[in-house]
Amino acid sequence: MKEVFLSNCEKSFIQKIISEGHRLDGRNYNDSRQLNISFGSQYGSCIVSLGETKILSQVSCEVVQPKQIRPNEGILYINVEISPMAAPQFEANRQTDLTVYLNRLLEKCYKDSKCIDLESLCIVVEEKVWSLRVDIKVLNHDGNLIECASIATLASLAHFKRPDVTRSGEKVIIHTLAEKDPIPTVLYHYPVCSTFAIFNNNILISDPSFIEESVCASNSEEGNISGGLLVVGMNQYKELCLLNLTGAAIYNSSIVHRATLSAADKCKSIVDLVKKTIISDDNLRQKRVKINFGDIITSDHVQSLSRKDLSICLKNFDHNVKSLPKDEEMMDDQSDVEIEPSKYDVVPSLPQTAEIKAKKGASNWIEISSDSEED
Question: Which end of the chain is more exposed for a tag (fewer CB within 10 A), N or C?
Answer without folding.
Answer: C
